[in-house]
């Protein structure tokens, strides 16, 4: 009979490795939902759990509502629930600006950046502050309409209420998952399994992706559960995942971030090899093509293998298009400094969401652009709260070839700073959504940037006279193809007439929540007759839209693909049938809260026009 002792030794070693791995992951807080450990663990010592709602909304990327009200705004996430457990469309909830893939299928859609890691799919975010810093044990998200948009939950080491700024700001992912399709729009409490972290937090960030949703997701409140003392996991476990033994975890692969990359950028000592194997036989261009499919962290890791691949990985041709948004939590001045020598030929740069809480300084950003800005064509800076007037001045001086500039939700830029943008005469796309741009600066931009094709002025509340702005567009911006005037408060039929007469190439126009426009003035029929190329038209919440307007669209705008007439009381089923019969390319029709269009009519239209997504929202 063979001895059993060798087998016992192997099992003992295996058990030891499991316990060692378990203790290490518990210490570092490296557990996540993809390798969830099904156990009956408990926190030692036992702490009293603190339950708290968000005290304050600190930051967010977009919202459906107005800057001057509470309806449909992110600010509704502060405090106790307003709606839950009810389901439906309620103004007291937090709603992001977009949903579905409609915004990717309109004339203003931007080309995506390549090399985006598959683990990053976030489109919007909101950051919430809580009263007490705790070690999180659970996060409950109360979703009241079309749930399923949340894809990441993060915790920050910085205390927003502390008088002393931290020396280092750390973000840890508590939970992450790809977008999922949830059956039904009903309310739910979403409580994903979160990993433990080794610092207390009172700053939680939700990131969302609404691409799979049939309508806007609505969030009511966020509840943070946690303890004041750091939990220590018991070693009493029921089952340990075999993947815990693998040293090369996904967290370690993708969690290297820019802190590790900063070190990798600076590595100069590389192993000497007598030959490079088959790589010596490959053309330089073919190796470059192969490496072009790697993410930035992968490039940095590969650069450490040998001098040949280091040369390829540092070639500026690998950094023609560079998106640092997926690594927003770890980008800082040091990262930009290390990237400078590699980005001398860069044309597309995405720094959206980066640099907040002091991680990127004005001087660090300026130094980078002075070295790397000469070839820039596209610059994405959405939610860049470090930006100030000096930054805009540097952009206009160092980026003479700039054609696209995104300053969406950069609400910390002072109004006078926007005057500098007028110096970039070659601009074709300018996004100023939720900024403090003023009328004088905008008039100057429109006067000198006559090449503009795409312009977003949604929720720009400091513009006093939109009729004057529209008149200047009609006179100077003849090439305009898309225009976002979402929640513009004072444009009238006069401004619309000037716009329609001068910008006849318009294919996309958003006039949602513009209360001063009245159908009785003929402004919408004028639009339909003057703009035959319209593919997207949003007249959201304009209760005066009537059958005459719809019939004019059917007669003149046969290329129409997306139409939003939410909230009108004057449109009948008969005019919608004419529109659907005439506009063969129509794919989105929002008739939510249209009093004459009940569910029976929607079902009938859906049956007769199956290629059109007809949305009818509801409130219970």
UniProtKB/TrEMBL annotation:
- Database matches in PROSITE patterns: FBOX (PS50181)
Q: Out of the domains of life, which is the source?
A: Eukaryota
Q: Where are the transmembrane segments?
A: none
Native source species: Rhynochetos jubatus
* Gene3D superfamilies xrefs: Ribonuclease Inhibitor
Q: Which InterPro entries match?
A: F-box-like_dom_sf, F-box_dom, FBXL15_LRR, Leu-rich_rpt_Cys-con_subtyp, LRR_dom_sf
Pfam families per the UniProt record, alphabetical: DUF7885, F-box-like
**What is the protein name given in its UniProt record?**
FBXL4 protein
Q: Which UniProt keywords apply?
A: Leucine-rich repeat, Ubl conjugation pathway
Among the record's GO biological process terms, what is one? SCF-dependent proteasomal ubiquitin-dependent protein catabolic process
The segment(s) forming the F-box domain are: 276-331
The cellular component terms of Gene Ontology attached to this UniProt record, alphabetical and capped at eight, are: SCF ubiquitin ligase complex
């Amino acid at each position: 009979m063979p001895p059993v002792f060798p087998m016992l030794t192997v099992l003992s070693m295996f058990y030891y490795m499991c316990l060692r791995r378990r203790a290490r992951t518990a210490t570092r807080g490296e557990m996540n939902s993809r390798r969830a450990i099904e156990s009956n663990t408990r926190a030692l010592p036992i702490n009293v759990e603190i339950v708290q709602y968000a005290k304050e909304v600190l930051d967010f990327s977009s919202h459906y509502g107005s800057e001057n009200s509470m309806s449909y705004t992110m600010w509704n996430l502060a405090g106790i629930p307003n709606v839950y457990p009810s389901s439906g469309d309620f103004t007291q909830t937090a709603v992001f600006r977009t949903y579905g893939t409609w915004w990717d299928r309109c004339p203003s859609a931007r080309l995506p950046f390549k090399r985006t890691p598959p683990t990053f799919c976030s489109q919007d975010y909101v950051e919430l502050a809580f009263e007490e810093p705790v070690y999180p044990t659970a996060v409950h998200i109360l979703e009241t309409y079309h749930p399923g948009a949340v894809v990441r939950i993060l915790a920050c080491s910085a205390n927003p209420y502390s008088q002393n700024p931290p020396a280092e700001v750390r973000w840890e992912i508590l939970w992450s998952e790809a977008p999922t399709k949830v059956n039904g729009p009903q309310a739910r409490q979403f409580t994903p399994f979160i990993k433990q972290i080794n610092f207390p937090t009172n700053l939680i960030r939700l990131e969302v992706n609404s691409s799979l949703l049939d309508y806007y997701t609505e969030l009511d409140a966020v509840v943070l559960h946690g303890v004041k003392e750091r939990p220590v996991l018991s070693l009493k476990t029921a089952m340990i995942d075999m993947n815990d033994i693998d040293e090369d975890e996904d967290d370690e692969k993708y969690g290297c971030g820019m802190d590790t990359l900063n070190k990798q950028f600076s590595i100069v000592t590389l192993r000497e090899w007598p030959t490079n194997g088959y790589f010596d036989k490959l053309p330089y261009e073919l190796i470059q093509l192969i490496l072009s499919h790697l993410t930035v962290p992968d490039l940095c890791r590969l650069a450490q293998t040998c001098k040949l691949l280091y040369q390829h990985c540092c070639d500026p041709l690998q950094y023609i298009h560079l998106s640092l948004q997926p690594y927003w939590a770890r980008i800082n001045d040091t990262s930009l400094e290390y990237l400078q020598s590699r980005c001398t030929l860069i044309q597309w740069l995405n720094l959206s969401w980066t640099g907040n809480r002091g991680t990127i300084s004005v001087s660090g950003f300026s130094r980078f652009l002075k070295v790397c800005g000469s070839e820039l064509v596209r610059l994405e800076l959405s939610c860049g709260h470090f930006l100030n007037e000096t930054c805009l001045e540097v952009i206009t001086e160092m980026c003479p070839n700039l054609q696209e500039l995104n300053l969406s939700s950069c609400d910390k830029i002072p109004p006078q700073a926007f005057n500098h943008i007028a110096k970039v005469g070659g601009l074709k796309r300018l996004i100023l959504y939720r900024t403090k741009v003023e009328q004088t600066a905008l008039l100057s931009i429109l006067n000198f940037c006559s090449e503009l094709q795409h312009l977003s002025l949604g929720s720009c509340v400091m513009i006093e006279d939109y009729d004057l702005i529209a008149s200047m567009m009609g006179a100077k911006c003849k090439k305009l193809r898309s225009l976002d005037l979402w929640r513009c408060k004072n444009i009238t039929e006069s401004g619309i007439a000037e716009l329609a007469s001068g910008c006849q190439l318009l294919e996309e126009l958003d006039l949602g929540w513009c209360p001063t426009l009245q159908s009785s003035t003929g402004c919408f029929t004028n639009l339909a007759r003057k703009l035959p190329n319209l593919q997207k038209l949003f007249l959201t919440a304009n209760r005066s839209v009537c059958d005459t307007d719809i019939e004019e669209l059917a007669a003149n705008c046969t290329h129409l693909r997306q139409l939003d007439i939410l909230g009108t009381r004057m449109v009948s089923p008969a005019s919608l049938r004419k529109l659907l019969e005439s506009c063969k390319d129509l794919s989105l029709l929002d008739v939510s809260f249209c009093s004459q269009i009940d569910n029976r009519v929607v079902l009938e239209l859906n049956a007769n026009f199956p290629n059109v997504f007809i949305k009818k929202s509801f409130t219970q």
